[in-house]
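Standup notes
- DV: blocked on the single-chain target, sequence here:
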Amino acid sequence: MDNELSRLEAQLEQLIGLYEAGKRERRELAERVVALEAHNRRLSEKVALATEKLETILERLPEA
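- DV (later): unblocked, structure below
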């Protein structure tokens, strides 16, 4: 009986450890998603600005 309780206790501790590790990983991934979304927005803004500048330059070129 004591052996089985010890085994179950060890399994429960392992399960709790895996659960905690999963929570940490999920939190880290959520933070990474937020950071990558912000980075993506900044890159999109840069692309939009570059597009505007290029369109302005193209409008100034004489037509051939």
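- Follow-up: The longest helix spans residues 2-60.
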